[in-house]
Design goal:
This protein has a single domain, classed as OB fold (Dihydrolipoamide Acetyltransferase, E2P) (Beta Barrel), CATH 2.40.50. It has a seven-stranded antiparallel sheet, with no helix packed on it. Strands 7-6-5-8 form a four-stranded antiparallel sheet, with no helix packed on it. A two-stranded antiparallel sheet has the order 1-2. The protein has one helix and 17 strands. Helices cover about 0% and strands about 25% of the residues. It is mostly beta strands and about 280 residues long. The longest helix has 6 residues, at about 210-215. Strand 14 and strand 15 form a beta hairpin.
């Protein structure tokens, strides 16, 4: 997907690089696969803000995505490539012979009219879903399961892909986009190919208003706050933060402080993403 560089007629257009949407073949989504999406503005069920700097934004509808790909052995035809406001990747609408329609993540090179299939007998081509044990080493994959039958949980954003490395009696080693090498059960499913919209990382919105349309509110530096609002606040002028290292608004160390809790599946990590 190439980017569209507008002429710098306004300050908002100067330096911006926007998606061209050339791959989109249908503007209106499939109504049977839409659900309302409520905007909670970063608040939990008690009304407490648990994610800061969220609120407002354009109204959106949720598209139901088939991450499990349960239509085993039934070939489906790609009807259209569509835009999804919830995620960075494009989505493809699949029509099956029994009349069922489903959305999937659109891999790179998928076009309307292509045939896709799920199951052990599927061909190794972009968009088909197979068990990991049947995918050759070196193949690029996405929509990777962590638990058999649960549906794809890894490698779902635009332009990402994992790579199948080696295998043993029970596990397959997969290199994730972060560089982490992880063991995954052979029974887990994965979809062949790299996710499309690979230029998404180069998009420059150009103005603050487009950030607000996404539901993201302004962020204020802690050093310009008062001491009661942030540990970095206070002082005359630009006096620094007054402490050896930066802290969060709640007084926790912001750098060099491990926040990932210990998980049982950490033993499946062969090489971490920071090593």
């Amino acid at each position: 997907m190439p980017l569209k560089i507008p002429k710098p007629l306004t300050p908002g257009q100067r330096g911006s690089a926007l998606p061209s949407f050339e791959e989109i073949t249908r503007r209106s989504p499939e109504k049977s696969l839409l659900r309302p999406l409520k905007n909670n503005a970063g608040r939990n069920s008690r009304g407490k803000i648990t994610v800061r700097h969220r609120g407002g934004g354009s109204k959106r509808m949720y598209r139901i995505i088939d991450f499990k790909r349960t239509k085993v052995g039934i070939p489906g035809k790609v009807i259209s490539i569509e835009y999804d406001p919830i995620r960075s990747a494009r989505i493809a609408l699949i029509n099956y012979p029994d009349g069922d329609k489903r959305y999937i993540l659109a891999p790179l090179g998928l076009n309307p009219g292509d045939r896709l299939e799920t199951g052990p007998d599927a061909e190794i081509k972009p968009g088909n879903t197979l068990p990991l044990r049947l995918i050759p080493s070196g193949t690029l994959i996405h929509n990777l399961e962590m638990t058999p039958g649960r549906g794809g949980q890894l490698v779902r954003s635009a332009g990402t892909a994992a790579q199948v490395l080696s295998r043993d009696d029970r596990h397959i080693q997969v290199r994730l986009p972060s560089g982490e090498i992880r063991k995954v059960l052979q029974q887990c499913n994965a979809t062949i190919g790299q996710i499309g919209n690979i230029e998404h990382k180069n998009v420059k919105l150009g103005k603050a208003g487009k950030i607000r349309h996404q539901g993201r509110r302004p962020q204020v530096r802690g050093s310009v706050m008062s001491p009661r609002d942030h540990p970095h606040g206070g002082g005359e002028g630009r006096s620094g933060i007054g402490m050896p290292g930066p802290k969060t608004p709640w007084g926790k160390p912001a750098l060099g402080y491990k926040t990932r809790r210990k998980k049982k599946n950490n033993v499946l990590i062969v090489r971490g993403r920071r090593r």
